[in-house]
Design goal:
Blueprint (H helix, E strand, L loop, with lengths): L1 H24 L4 H38 L11
Length: 78
Amino acid sequence: MRRIISFLMGAAGGALVGATLAILLAPYSGEDLRNELRSRANRFRNELKEAAQQRRSELERQLQALRQPHKEIPIEER
């Protein structure tokens, strides 16, 4: 039990030091950083939606092709 408490104390201390350094060394102010993160998240979301739509269109075309009856190819053309 004592080892677990020591580990948790060390992890909490490390997280506190890391958060403090991140805040002090951040290249933007808090509001600018939030705006930048929001902008990047929106761009990522839009790219993800576009990629999903393209993949969906591709899969729908493939499904449509599979649903169409196949023509029998004469033996001479095979």
